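Box 4.2: Ligand-aware structure prediction
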Amino acid sequence: MNKISITSPATIANLVCGFDILGLALEEPYDIMTLETGDRPGLEIFHLDEHGLPTDPENNVAGAALLAMMEELDSIPSWKLTIDKKIKPGSGLGSSAASAAGAVFAANALLGNCFSKDDLIRFAMFGEKVASGVKHADNITPCLLGGVTLIRSIHPLDIVKLSAPELFITVVHPQIEVRTSDARQILKKDVQLKQAIKQWGNIAGLVAGFMQGDHALIGRSLEDVIIEPVRSILIPGFDEVKQNCIAAGALGGGISGSGPSIFMLSKQKETAAAVETEMKKVYTRLGIAHKTYVTMLNSEGIRTL
Ligand code: HSE
């Protein structure tokens, strides 16, 4: 095989209470990426979109992930990577993870799948480091594995794919940019034991809710007493969107990754559509341009085209 095209999906990291440890993959939006054998040893990157992302491999998230992989190969491959990015950078929908995970998935396919999924997560985290200054796997893992994933540890890597019931997911992306590095810097470094206990209860409840297919438990557990109160100040209309969507029947939701996108989970498709209407109402009234998605849990992750 000397050419592969894939779709690499958007992801929602944190899932409200599980900062840096929980995430899920969405059916939409997704990036389209093609990796093919080039003419000379090394890596060339081309963008088909207008986002103006760097093309030098060291500063490109897909490039950094591929360079990490190349270091473990016996000889330097010739790779030409073309990215059509539909997931807007800085949206909180795992744009950088889609690039990094998509690139290493495609490269592994060209190499005859010599690396394991854990290896791919390890390489892709180098891309996340370029994007946000820290290695985290809560977008990369659901992107590569699909579904809902738990990162019990990144050193050493210990990943669990959770079973989950059918879920509809509504996302609103107010068109403002929140840099993950900024959204991480404003967080408090210390947590009170009282808050930690509440958060542990919610994380355990959410994991149990997914595994038992208990929608009500999922809804009750979508509560974050540590990160959301700090980060939500960066997102205009956040409290109103959340309140109105839950009143419209959503199970619950919150900030997608580091924001500014907000997501809501629903049991029924009709509820997910009603939630979209509420989201649009708030941002139209606030005069903030926005994009919405009504989509589903993507249980496969990256797909070959
Ligand atoms: N867990 C990361 C954060 C995800 O919230 O900073 C960033 O997409």
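In the box above, the bound molecule is L-homoserine. The CA atoms of residues 21 and 151 lie 5 Å apart.
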